[in-house]
Amino acid sequence: MKETIKKAVCIMSGGMDSTLAAYMMKKEGYEIVGVHFNYDQRTQAKELECFEAICKELEVKEKYVLDLDFFAKLGASALTDKNIDVPTSGVEEGVPVTYVPFRNGIFLSMAAAIAEKEGASVIAIGVVEEDSSGYPDCRENYIEAMQRAINLGTKDETNIEIKMPLVHLKKSEIVQEAVNLGVALELTWSCYKNEDAACGVCDSCRLRLNGFEKAGVTDPIKYE
């Protein structure tokens, strides 16, 4: 009897969190289907380069790189609108200007279509609720609601679980787990501003550096 291959569609930005989530799925015995989005974000070229390198490292056979011009036309985020500065002071109130409206909802919807086509039982996403930037589309109850909606809107025989293995971890715990799993952290990128050397002062760089410091680990990427 032929063994059924377990597949996980992994939404992979090239960042540390989504990369760790993909490594965790591989450890659980899933064949990884990598999905990456180019949405005219400031560090699009670097993120794509990281995604390709990480897929090679994980020996991903099937991958999708999807181009979306929607977010650039929409604007409303410092990541996609060059007229809005990426904040570097670290003192933003409320939802940051780097929030991209409903991004994870759109990404999950597209990943669901891929999962149904590929016969995957899992979509993995590296959302972090407790120690993140405060994005509303990274909340556990929101992702659970998306899972219900996806299963209502797909074929009866389609049953997809959205795994979010990092949702309750702090950044330092993510760094430690990545080290434990042998994640190629030097291939990951978190900076919102730069593509050559990370700025070290944007919200994402601050969270990353703080996580490495608290974990007692040296970040292998280059900073300005």
TrEMBL record:
Pfam family, one: QueC
Cofactor, how bound (note): Binds 1 zinc ion per subunit.
Needed co-factor(s): Zn(2+)
Entry keyword Nucleotide-binding: yes
Catalytic reaction list: 7-carboxy-7-carbaguanine + NH4(+) + 2 ATP = 7-cyano-7-carbaguanine + 2 AMP + 2 diphosphate + 2 H(+)
EC class: ligase
Pathway annotation: Purine metabolism; 7-cyano-7-deazaguanine biosynthesis
Residues given in the record as Zn(2+) binding sites: C191, C199, C202, C205
Alphabetically ordered keywords of this record: ATP-binding, Ligase, Metal-binding, Nucleotide-binding, Queuosine biosynthesis, Zinc
Transcription keyword on record: no
PANTHER family with a match to the protein in the record: 7-CYANO-7-DEAZAGUANINE SYNTHASE (PTHR42914:SF1)
Family membership noted in the UniProt record: Belongs to the QueC family.
HAMAP family: QueC (MF_01633)
Protein name as catalogued: 7-cyano-7-deazaguanine synthase
Organism: Sulfurimonas marina
Gene: queC
